[in-house]
Amino acid sequence: MTHLTGILTHQASTTAATVTGLLSDIANLGTDTVRGGYTRPVYSTAELDLREWFIQEANRRGLAVETDRNGSIWAWWDTPTKDRSNALVTGSHLDSVPGGGPFDGPLGVASALVAVDILKSRGTNPTRPLAVVVFPEEEGSRFGVACLGSRLMTGAIDPDKARNLRDPDGNTFADTAKANGLDPRFIGRDEVLLGQIGAFVELHVEQGRGLIGLDQPIAIASSILGHGRWRLSFHGQGNHAGTTLMADRHDPMIAASRTVVAIRDTAREQPHARATVGRLQPVPGGTNVIASRVDFWLDIRHPDDAVTAAVVESIHTQAQLIAAEEGCTVDLREESLSPTVHFDPALQKQLQKALPEAPILDTGAGHDAGVLSPHVPTAMIFVRNPSGVSHSPEEHVVDEDADTGAQALADALQALLV
Ligand code: GLV
Ligand code: MN
Ligand code: MN
């Protein structure tokens, strides 16, 4: 936490926070010198420092900070009655993908803090409680399941399954949660907290090219593509790279590679489908070793959940045929599945009234807002990303748009607070 001392000194001397100022205060947390960008997996030193930064910023604003039993941090701006029902909640996440950009998650958190400042500077006296939330493990980069914090809170994942998730080093989520002050016996659906949320509005960097060319800095979300993650494990015969003739091999790397190409071809034939293999792991993983097993993770997205299921089925069949041709076997396991989300039409209308210039966009990226959506009225605001690139160091938001986003979030919250 040594770097945070500097943050405090700097912030104490500033008057009004800006989104850019807040993001520059955390710019050196979790930088990845190998991949570029940021690597901030949940409960890593970097993510813990970010959580601590958030708590300090919330305290500075006089918000009441609480960490719930699933590890989400809540910063409450209470009404005088301290009644927390029908709360208006905003926020996002602070964890990142490996080598991610600076805005995916932190933009929504920083904008929420600035929106609180703006509302306070306008003399707003909320008639309902307002909370800023930070959800853990939104990316699923460490334990494999995206939006783990919001899934646990809403009961979208079985707590036993969550407890037994393992990170790449073999640590269970239960042990990691315990090491970070949670009691893993009590993770899971939080009826009380869920019942307190009257509406959730998440601001997020736009992660594609949706706002480019529209001449607008922000948009309102309509929907999120359904998406899921599957793990394919190809089993073969581990052997010596020099002594094993090509004809004698049962090489799971070949089966896996051919399947990756088949996945690309299958997705290309399906309008609107997106299929990605972004992580592949040979076991044992030696230059002069034919692998005995290759695992890879498949990410598929499509607006029609039935099409997603059909694409997965087709890929599974093709993988089995390819594996057999290579003298290998394959098994496929679903790790997570999120149906297509259509955000609450009434809340969307309220946002459109507060932000009349903002176009309506759908997105292919997943969000905690999508997980909350079946349970509470939920909406999202996107901020323009001129690079059109995300999950990469090239993700970008210009300073002016970042502050316009915070103003828009404040306007939307204000409209909902009265
Ligand atoms: C998260 O950003 C995802 O869409 O995977
Ligand atoms: Mn995100
Ligand atoms: Mn992301």
Ions, cofactors and other bound molecules: glyoxylic acid, manganese (II) ion
Tell me, what's the shape?
globular
- What structural class is derived from the secondary structure elements? alpha/beta
| Topology order in helix (H) and strand (E) letters | HHHEEEHEHHHHEEEEHEEEHEEHEHEH
Radius of gyration, CA atoms, in whole angstroms: 22 Å
Indicate the CATH architecture of the largest domain: 3-Layer(aba) Sandwich
Per DSSP, the total helix count is 13
Strand segment tally? 15
CATH class of the largest domain: Alpha Beta
CATH homologous superfamily placement of the largest domain: Zn peptidases
What share of residues is helical?
Answer: 25-40%
User: DSSP strand (E) fraction?
Assistant: 15-25%
Output the CATH topology of the largest domain.
Answer: Aminopeptidase
Kindly, what is the distance between the CA atoms of the first and last residues, rounded to a whole number of angstroms?
Answer: 39 Å
Q: What average pLDDT do the residues reach?
A: 95
